[in-house]
Amino acid sequence: MATNRDVLKFDIILFITTIALMVIGIFFIYSSGVNSAGISVSNEWIKQIIWVISSIVIIILFTIYDYAKFKLISFYIYIVMVLLLIFTLIFGNYVNGARSWLGIGPFGIQPGEFSKIALILYLGSFLDDNYKTIFTLKKFIQAIVIIAIPMLLILVQPDFGSAIVNVPIFLVMMFLAGARIKHLIYLIITGSLIIYLTALPAWSEYIAREEVLIINVLTQWATLKYVIAALILIILLSAAGLRFFKASYYYWIIYFTSSFTLALVGSIGGRLVLKGYQIMRLIIFIDPQVDPQGAGWNMIQSITAVGAGGIWGRGYLQGTQSHLQYLPQQNSDFIFSIFSEEAGFVGAIIVFALYILLLVRSLIVVDRANDRYGVAVGSGIIGMIFFHVIINTGMAIGIMPITGIPLFFLSYGGSSLWTASIGIGILLSIYQRRYRN
Amino acid sequence: MKGFLGSSSGSNVSRSRLIIVGAVFVFTFFIYLTHLFSLQVVNAVLYQKKARDVSERSDIIPAQRGKIYDRNYDNPLAMNIDSFAILVTPAEVQDRSIDELVDKISSIINISADELKRKIPRSTANKYQAVELVSGVSFENIAYIAEHIDEFSGVSWSSKPLRYYNMTGSISHIIGYIGGITSSELQVLYNQGYAYDSVLGKRGIEKQYDMILRGTNGRRIKTVDVKGRDIDREDLIEPPQNGMNIRLTIDRNIQELAEKALGPRKGSVVVLQPSTGEIVAMVSYPNFNPNLFSIPGPTNFGVLSLDPDFPFLNRAIQSQYAPASTFKLVLTTALLDTEAFDPERTITCTGELEIGNRITHCHKLSGHGPVNLQEALEQSCNIYFGTVGMEYLGIDVISQYARYLGLSSVTGIDLPGEVAGNIPTKAWKESVYNNTWQKGDTYNASIGQGFVTSTPLQVATEIAMIVNDGIAYRPHILKEVIDPISGEVHERIEKEILRTSPIKYETFQTLKEYMRSVVTDGTSNVVILNTQVDVAAKTGTGQAWGLNENWHSWFASFGPYETDNPDERYVVLTMVEASNEWEWWAPKAADIIYEGLFGNKTYEEVIRDFKKRRVWYAWDIPLEEDTDGNE
Predict the structure, then answer these.
(1) Least enclosed by CB within 10 Å: which of A39, A346, A379, B151?
(2) Which residues of A touch B231 (CB under 8 A)?
(3) Residue A285: which domain range?
(4) Which long-range contacts (CB under 8 A, 24 or more apart) does B391-394 make?
(5) What is the count of structural domains for chain A?
(6) pTM for the whole thing?
(7) With an 8 Å Cβ cutoff, are B25 and A309 in contact?
(8) Is residue A55 assigned to a domain?
(9) Residue B35 reports pLDDT greater than 70
(10) Do the chains contact at B32 and A394, CB–CB below 8 Å?
(11) CA of A306 to nearest chain B CA: how many angstroms apart?
(12) Residue range A57-116, pLDDT digits in tens
């Protein structure tokens, strides 16, 4: 194949969109470093330029490299990643309350960020190998185990946000790989219930402000053990019923009852793993006014910044919420807030349009993918990017709980930018090789 | 199966599932944009206000309260003295702990460190917020701190002027004082620009003309960052509008003369110009010193407000007494005006009178003998007036003439809290006591007792109306409102007719002749001894509830009796309560006032001259100069 033909095959739209978002990011990281007197007090924007340049190099390298070769080593990558996460858990540095950084001196990386790519590569390999039987429950559970290991390791750091990203990666990959809808829905229901039940005691304490009997029954071990025992009994009886009578409603009884049982057990684990402030973030998401000066402050100030932007924004470097430092972490987690304050609704439409373009273009890449591995890996990357964007911007505008998830391409930071760039590079690589036989 | 097995066009993926994923993405972004639209387009103004509120602090630039002057407009009676509040910004304290800093400040301003430390908030939440440590600090202390500011990092100050009254005592009843607004006052005044931390006039002129005196506070609007640090942006300044100065009709020299003439006796004095209604002096005893309210001890506000002598009561307008024999002026007016009884006809006073089955006595138990109207007024004969009141006038006419002369309604003086007194009628008694009017009630009313009550100012205004041949001007304290900077007169209070009456001109002429003869031939001829001015007057000696040996002592007078220039006339009304030791002091106080007023003398000079002239009642009056001389 001629080199110049390969260049013609290059997905220029995906590439340009990515670069555009990164440039916007540099501008607003600069803005976030400008203090109230109008003086730039941070050189993070310069660091970010370096990150962006290195990211472009990464994108090009991954585009040139044949993604299919990752399949051969994906298992080893996965193992190394799991070991790295364990290592981080033991020797890592605390950043924002989570033991999530590995580093020497000023240089550090977050293995949790790159673990997503490793997971995608290995799960893609698993799906490619098992494409004929992926609809079975057995394979579905095996796939769950693959994501559960890194996810739990990140969860105990504890980095709730980074851990939960693995779920949408898994869902999109499984969905496009042909898993059964009811399996996926089971997972969604159970996962939602776990979060809900985990936050329930805090909800009754901070929002309802009264003791609710049913909540006590479902959250205190003294009563909970009987509830779980009863639920397991129901499942066993229904299993027996299914075996002897083959009636489909037994199946659905098991389906929902076991989901609830798992969620109850999971919520016990959730309360053990999640720190108080993380549960508080869920509560704040329901009602930020519970603690407006404390845990709710970030969300209230962020919503105020976004709303104050209006249609056209307050102008570049003109946002008061950001430059008077009412906005916390405005260069990373809340970059979208400073952007919305200064660029307004029109700016937000532009950024969202860029992300939609990027995602739709990525879906087209997956559609054109030459092999199943490309489909699986590409869909994992799409799920990852989409979820990052949705959680981060949703947090800034108050419709998602606060998690420390960065906004890909815009937020300051090398680990997340490199992770996203590797994803884009792989997607471009898939597109590049769509015609080969 | 779907998924990897793909759809028709050779793809490795189910296109329908891809479309579902794409649709979910687009739909999610659409929801987000809807929410953003609600935040940034629909509610943008709300959030912009929130963003402004969170970062804007406005500091009040206090308006200076107007000064209060007497009619001489030279030295202020009420002024603002420089006073400062010391502020500490905890985050800016360097080189030492806050406790050490507070100890140092405490040693300079002489206030216990423990008290100051209580003002420092325990929480370190907002360390950039300046905390007011203490107010009322003198300029000297601030100057010291300013010179040594290196040792006082984190310390700042703001001007917080203190109201100071150069003259206190009886004038404090007129001027009043200021204080912090209470929650109930705020409820009423909220829409007039008062805030929870406003200071406002609580009594007297300070209260009456608070809106004129207070001015309008200015504001400095500054932008602060999340830590409360002031941002070096241009502050928006709304300059304050200082309050207007007030010039009173009071002459502080006459006020002082009247205050000393009354002396330490519970009672009141009113000196006014009948031709204008201007009050030149108004004394009420006991009084108070608002400069001392914050000092613990017997002058403390809390102690004074529980004092059974009611030092906060301005007795000239807020106490109503039986007007006693001064009320006989009303009967004389009625008799002369209605011609119901020939003034030359005599009634024989035997010293007692039988009304129904009850016997009343004249104050002269042996009786005045046969007296006509003029003699009855001179001698203040109860039997004469009781008889004509009951037999020839009746309560309807008496109360009618009392009303003509302004009794029973407020004078409308520009001081808060004036009371109206009472003139009874038959209907009034029936509605209040559920009892019919008795002849004895008319007798009591005729001699100014019973249900009749008046304030000293009402009686003074009554005399002024007699002096003016039937025109009463509204008594007032405010003379001019003056711009504090330009000195321009902003508003001048012109004389305003309070009341006229259908009473005949001749009636007043005769009445004034009679009043003159009260002094020359009547009850007070032994007391009115001043050589400056011819006085016309009526005395009053009133019974007070529960006191048999002592009487309310009234002296309602004007002088000079005859003049070509009505503006030089004054009404002097003195009233000494029955609760004092009986000295028949009211006419003596008035006599001293006339001597000082027309002789242009101070109280001390009057007494010294009286002693030289061997005025009998001045012999025992102590003079400070004498005691100083003896020691």
Answers:
(1) A39
(2) 36-37, 324
(3) 3-432
(4) B392/B335, B392/B340, B392/B341, B393/B331, B393/B334, B393/B335, B393/B338, B393/B340, B393/B341, B393/B446, B394/B442
(5) 1
(6) 0.63
(7) no
(8) yes
(9) yes
(10) yes
(11) 7
(12) 999 999 999 999 999 999 999 999 999 999 888 887 777 666 777 776 556 778 888 899
